[in-house]
Amino acid sequence: KYDRQIRKRLKEVKMYLWEDKNYMIVPAAKCEELMREGRALHHCVGASDTYMKRMAAGTSWILFLRRKEDPEEPYYTIEIDVKEDGILQWYSEYDRKPDRGKIEKVLKKFKESVKRKRAQEAKQEIA
Fold first, then answer.
1. Strand ranges (E), 3-123
2. Do 26 and 67 form a contact (C-beta atoms < 8 A)?
3. Which CA distances in Å does 67 have to 22, 33, 76?
4. Maximum CA pair distance of the chain?
5. End-to-end CA, the chain
6. In CA terms, which of 19, 114, 117, 123 is 20 to 30 Å from 107?
């Protein structure tokens, strides 16, 4: 029941698409993806409708961090506040953070990219 509302908001979250030479971040597009992600990584993202409700309401969004060498393999799940563009949480398997230092650097680059996109959007609105 949330998929319709989530689909309507996909345009708003396309700005969270990101990649560098090793990683990519992709916004979730439907509830089934959350359930698959939660099962694969053994964490709570798809176990209830909590995150689906947040996405449908437009308060936060689930993003998938993938290694480009294996883009279908779940690696990290990220929850981002769509109003502030702040990362609320990010976890890999069993709510752990392997490669924490490396991933913190990746997330920093991602956040800088989002900030640049927001600035570009603001310039276009003014023009």
1. 18-19, 23-27, 60-67, 76-81, 86-91
2. no
3. 6, 17, 9
4. 47
5. 38
6. 123
